[in-house]
Each structure stands twice: as C-alpha cells, then as structure tokens.
Design brief:
By secondary structure, this protein is α/β, with parallel strands linked by helices. It folds into 2 domains: 91 residues, no CATH class; 132 residues, Rossmann fold, CATH 3.40.50. Helix content is 51%, strand content 14%. The protein contains 9 helices and 7 strands; from the N terminus they run ααααβββαβαβαβαβα. The strands form 2 sheets. The protein has a 5-stranded parallel sheet, with helices on both faces. β4, α6 and β5 form a beta-alpha-beta unit. It is elongated. The model has no long low-confidence stretch (mean pLDDT 91).
Length: 251
C-alpha cells in the first residue's frame, strides 16, 4: 500500500504531472482526429516518462558507473581530486564555504586513500560562478580538518571545467615528476575525465567515488514511477556522452 501511495503521489508532481498532461492532450487530439500530432505527442510523452523512471535512468547511469572498478592503490604516486561544485558563504567547521555533495564524496574518498597510503593530493577546481566558492581552496581546508598535512596538499584553483582540470593538473604532474596519478572523481564522470587526461598524455588510475546507483541493480515496480532525480540521472548520462564525444573529436 505504501509503494502504491508513493507511485500515485509521483503523478501529482513534476515530472509526472507534465507527463499526464501530455498524454491527456494527445488523447484530446486523437478524438479530434488529429492523429499525426496525437501520435507525435504520445511518443514524446512516453520518451519523457521512460527517461523519468529509475528503471531506465538507473541502467543508463549504471553503464557509466560500472566502467571502472576500484583498483589497487599500490602503484600510484599521487592522488588527483577533481572539483564537483562548491557554495560560498555557507558555514563549515573548517571555515566559510562548503563543498557540494559530489565534491564532498570525492574529497572523503581521497582522504581515505591517503590514510591507507600517504601520497600527495592534488585538488583541481576553481571558482566556476560568482556565487560559488573556490572548490580547491575549500577542499584544502576540509582535508586539513580530516588530518591531512598541509605539505601533502597541492592546490590547482584556476580550472572551471573538466578539460581545464586535465590541462592544468597535467602541468603540475609534469613539473613535479609524477607518473602514475590516482584519479578520484564521481563514477559517472570518470570516463570523460580519463579521456581528458589521456589527451594530455597521462594514463591515470581511475578510483571512482560518489555513486548514484546501487549494486546490483534489481527491478521493482516503483522503479516505474517518474521522478525528478531519475530524469536528472538520464540527463547526466546524455551530457557525459555528448561531452565525451566533444573531447574525442572536437576539442
């Protein structure tokens, strides 16, 4: 009964509400014998619906997250952490400004790796927007609060996208003689990140963090309910594929 109520509630809120409206309009058009337009609108509504289900979006995002498994860390000589967003002005135990959930997950994983095998940590990420914080600087404070010595933290705080992350960080790698960096970023973001570092001539050791789907994937009926989070995961999948294409063939 609880799951049925959850499913019903999802149809009263976006994106479920918009999907219902599209289907209702297509039915009205069909009754008015506007068959072609009704068919197109129904197809759009169905695609929109499927992309809004965790059943389909989970399979899409899972295909990105399963590309790399957690490796052994014994062969790495440094740790790279890519920024994933920050918010200026928010209170923190380590000072002003906080990391986004994705960036925080990446930072915590880097700290865990460090405590298993102390290696220099390179934090890559600048201030993307006027009202966002400087990602690398905030992460540096948070890592120090987690017990990472300041001398083991290297800050790259100028990059504002993944392409620049790779370009500016690879310059640090070259200048300091690092050869086998461990790359920490969100699991869905790893494929594109690896491509960008390869483009700069570095083979990284992928160490994914911040998983958006659980393992293993199991079907249940409520995975067919539409939700904004599922739609976001679908959009993340297509965004990553598009930007990987751009990295490979355009940039």
């Amino acid at each position: 009964m609880i799951y049925l109520l959850k499913f019903g509630a999802s149809l009263l809120l976006p994106p479920g509400l918009f999907i219902i409206i599209l289907f209702v309009v297509s039915c009205i058009l069909w009754r008015k014998q506007e068959y072609r337009l009704a068919t197109v609108l129904s197809a759009v509504a169905m695609i929109f619906y499927l992309l809004s289900t965790s059943w389909l979006s989970g399979m899409l995002i899972n295909s990105l997250e399963n590309k790399y498994s957690r490796p052994e860390i014994s062969s790495g000589d440094c740790i790279i952490v890519l920024g994933g967003g920050a918010m200026a002005g928010n209170p923190s135990m380590a000072g002003e400004g906080t990391l986004s959930c994705a960036a925080g997950s990446r930072m915590v994983l880097a700290a865990q790796i460090y405590h298993q095998r102390p290696l220099p940590i390179i934090l890559s990420g600048g201030q993307v927007y006027a009202d966002s914080g400087n990602e690398a600087e905030i992460a540096r404070r948070e890592l120090q609060a987690l017990g990472i010595p300041e001398q083991d933290i290297i800050v790259e705080d100028q990059s504002i996208n993944t392409r620049q992350n790779a370009i500016f960080t690879c310059k640090i790698l070259t200048d300091r003689g690092f050869k086998r960096p461990i790359l920490v970023t969100s699991a869905f973001h790893m494929e594109r990140s690896v491509l960008n570092f390869q483009k700069e001539g570095f083979e990284v050791i992928p160490f994914p963090a911040d998983f958006r789907t659980g393992q293993p994937q199991r079907f249940h009926w409520n995975k067919l309910e539409p939700s904004a989070l599922a739609l976001e995961n679908s959009m993340i999948f297509f965004r990553e594929k598009l930007r990987s294409f751009v990295t490979l063939y355009i940039e």
